[in-house]
Every structure is written in C-alpha cells, then in structure tokens.
Amino acid sequence: MSENRKNILKLRQITDKSRATAIKANESWNLLTIMAEFIDATERLSEVRPAVTIFGSARTRPDDPFYLNCVDLSRRLSDAGFSVISGGGPGIMEAANKGAFAGTSSSIGLNVELPREQVPNQWQNISISFRHFFARKVAFVKYADAYVIYPGGFGTMDELTEVLTLIQTGKTRQMPVILVGTQFWSGFIEWLKASLLGGKMIAENDLNLIQLIDEPINIVDAIFAFYEALDIETSNDELHRLL
Questions:
Q1: How many CB atoms lie within 10 A of CB 139?
Q2: Within a domain: residue 168?
Q3: What is the pLDDT of residue 167?
Q4: How large is the average pLDDT for residues 166-186?
Q5: Predicted structure pTM score
Q6: What is the C-alpha separation between 16 and 51, in angstroms, rounded?
Q7: What is the tally of structural domains in the chain?
Q8: Using an 8 Å Cβ cutoff, are 109 and 126 in contact?
Q9: Sheet holding 126-130, edge to edge
Q10: Do 192 and 207 contact (CB within 8 A), yes or no?
Q11: Average pLDDT value for residue range 222-227
Q12: Strands 51-55, 107-112: parallel, antiparallel or unpaired by DSSP?
C-alpha cells in the first residue's frame, strides 16, 4: 500500500465536540430513516409474489398510446396472478397502477418524495412512501419477477441500466427484462450493439437479457414462457443474492 497518506480525520478524532456531536446526530438520524424504509418495505411486500415491476415516464399523458398499452398490460398481468409494482406517480406509473387496480391482484406504488412531478396516483392497494431513491430502487428489484420498461427519461434509463447490471453481474437472479416501444428503443439497442458490444464493453450474450415486445398479450406470454422453461422454485443461492 502506498505511504502517500493524506491527513484526513476520522469522526472520532474531531476535537470540536459540538461539531462532532452534530455530525453524529445528523448521520444517525439519516441511518434510522433509511432502516425504517427498508423495514416498512419488507413488512408490507414480503408476501407479494409473483410481481412485475413496470418503469416508464412520469410525463406520459392518459391519451398517449403507451399509457393505454400499459393499462391493458397491467390489467392482463393482474388477472393472470401478478401483482404490479410501479413508482406510484403519474404517467406510465399511473397507467400501471390503474390497470392492476382493476384486476384481481395487488396494485403497488413505491412513491418517492420529489419537489415536482411525483404526486401519488389514486390506484394503489399498497402505497409506500420513500425519501431515499436507493431504498426505493431496492424494493423495485427485490420483489420483482419480471421488468417491463416503457419509454421514459433519465429515471427510466437509470432503472433499466441498474436492473441489467444486477442481472449481468449475478447480484440478482435472471428474469425477463422487456422493453415496450420498438421505434423508441431500436436506436438504443443499435447503440448497445455498435458501441458497447462493438467496443467489447459487454459480451454478446448480455444483449440476450433484453426482449423487445410491443403487444401486451405477447408480453404476458413471454413472462410465462420464461418461467415455464426454468425450475420456478427459487434456489438457495438466488435467495441469498436477493437478500
């Protein structure tokens, strides 16, 4: 190890006791709020399986074809026995909750406190509020058996790439990742092939993690087909990775 050490104080080495106490109090409170969010999500979602997490833009309007597509899909998923998990807000999140709410299974909204855009929609059987994005993102992944991603902005891209990274690195189990909107996503897929695969930054089989499907009935069939081809029972190793 290099001996070029910088003189960076540890918290316990701060001589100003008032400052040290204020830092400890603030950080301790933050940790407690984070723990509380994980505990609440675990308490309320542990028995919610199987489930499909749906991502997409908060800005998609109710008359948009993707909104209507998502309502149709989530209703089909709900009636097929899948709870539907969304971000709990407007746009595609609202469409996902709306369709699931009308079906036979649970409609779940994982809401986050934001200064704008994020207002909880009314179609939620289970509504959980998060202050921390990363705690919310853990819940999106931990309780999902498939992901469906509609067109969206930075948040949607963040959630998509995180899911792909977790599956690629073996930090979560293999499951369907389905993109809806061939025209919207085709440029992204081509960029993955040309830039990431072409630059040897991903392996060719990493592209197989993604399916591009537009029709709701075909999405439901693809999710069932994925699990029918596998041993549906979660292995001990998969359970360990989920935890």
A1: 22
A2: yes
A3: 95
A4: 95
A5: 0.85
A6: 51
A7: 1
A8: yes
A9: 126-130, 107-112, 83-86, 51-55, 146-149, 177-179, 210-212
A10: yes
A11: 95
A12: unpaired
Q: Is 201 helix (H, G, I), strand (E, B) or coil?
A: coil
Which residues constitute the domain of residue 34? 15-242
Per the domain annotation, does 8 fall within a domain?
A: no
Phi and psi torsions of 91, nearest 5°: 70, -135
Note the pLDDT tens digit of each residue in 100-157: 999 999 999 999 887 665 678 999 999 999 988 889 999 999 999 999 999 999 999 9
Grouping H, G, I as helix, E, B as strand and the rest as coil, residue 52 is: strand
d(CA 226, CA 174): 10
Q: Among 127, 78, 74, 133, which residue's Cα sits nearest to residue 103?
A: 78
The DSSP annotation for 86-136 comes to E-SSSTHHHHHHHHHHHSSS-EEEEEE--SSS----S--SEEEEES-HHHH
Burial group, residue 133, by CB count within 10 angstroms (0-12, 13-18, 19+): middle
| Separation in Å, CA 192 to CA 42, 114, 195, 199 | 35, 31, 6, 10
Q: How close are the terminal C-alpha atoms of the chain, in Å? A: 33
C-alpha distances in angstroms, 51 versus 5, 73, 83, 93?
A: 49, 13, 4, 15
Q: What does each C-alpha distance from 227 to 60, 72, 88, 110, 223 come to in angstroms?
A: 31, 22, 27, 25, 7
Residue 10 is assigned to a structural domain of this protein: no
Residue 224 belongs to domain with CATH number = 3.40.50.450
Look at residue 232 and tell me whether its pLDDT is greater than 70: no
Instruction: Pick the closest to residue 209 from 171, 179, 242 (CA basis).
Output: 179
User: Is 81 within the bounds of a domain?
Assistant: yes
